[in-house]
């Protein structure tokens, strides 16, 4: 069976990342994924990213979460996540805080409408 990947598309004023059902976040894939998102942001001259995902399993250690958040901050992205993850609320807050404290606002949302409002899109 073929593994379904995320879909990244340039929208007016932002980049949309759509994750498939049962998406798994794996450390080895994150650098190329971030580079792909950053390249599309560059094409659209935006740093706003909306990530949508129904069920997301995060296979990252606390150190990998820290490194991923730092990587997002280096790219100067503003990220709204409307994903149902298996992370605890404490780990979600930790992830948000690392990126936000380094100049890349990031926030988890329950509803797409709220995420779009936060991104001003």
User: CATH class, please?
Assistant: Alpha Beta
Quick check: average pLDDT?
Answer: 92
Strand-residue proportion: 25-35%
CA-atom Rg in angstroms? 13 Å
Number of separate structural domains: 1
Shape type: globular
Structural summary, described in words:
There is one protein chain. 43% of the residues lie in helices and 31% in strands. It is built from four helices and six strands. It has helices at 27-44, 62-74, 89-101, 112-119, and strands at 7-11, 14-18, 23-26, 48-59, 78-85, 106-108. The radius of gyration is 13 Å and the shape is globular.
Sum up the structure in keywords.
single chain, 121 residues, alpha/beta, Transcription Regulator spoIIAA, 43% helix, globular
Would you summarize the structure shown here?
With 121 residues, the chain is an alpha/beta fold. Helix content is 43%, strand content 31%. The protein has one domain (13-116): 2-Layer Sandwich (Transcription Regulator spoIIAA), CATH 3.30.750.
Question: What is the topology?
Answer:
Elements lengths: L6 E5 L2 E5 L4 E4 H18 L3 E12 L2 H13 L3 E8 L3 H13 L4 E3 L3 H8 L2
Parallel strand pairs: 2-4, 3-4, 4-5, 5-6
Antiparallel strand pairs: 1-2
């Amino acid at each position: 069976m073929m593994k379904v990947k995320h879909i990244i598309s340039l929208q007016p004023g932002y980049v949309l990342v759509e994750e498939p059902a049962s998406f798994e976040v794996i450390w080895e894939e994150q650098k190329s994924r971030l580079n792909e998102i950053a390249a599309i942001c560059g094409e659209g001259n935006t740093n706003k990213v909306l990530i949508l995902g129904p069920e997301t399993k995060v296979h990252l250690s606390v150190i990998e979460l820290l490194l991923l958040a730092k990587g997002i901050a280096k790219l100067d992205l503003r990220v709204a996540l409307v994903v149902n993850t298996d992370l605890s609320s404490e780990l979600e807050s930790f992830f948000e805080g690392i990126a936000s404290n380094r100049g890349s606002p990031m926030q988890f949302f329950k509803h797409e409408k709220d995420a779009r409002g936060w991104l001003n899109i």
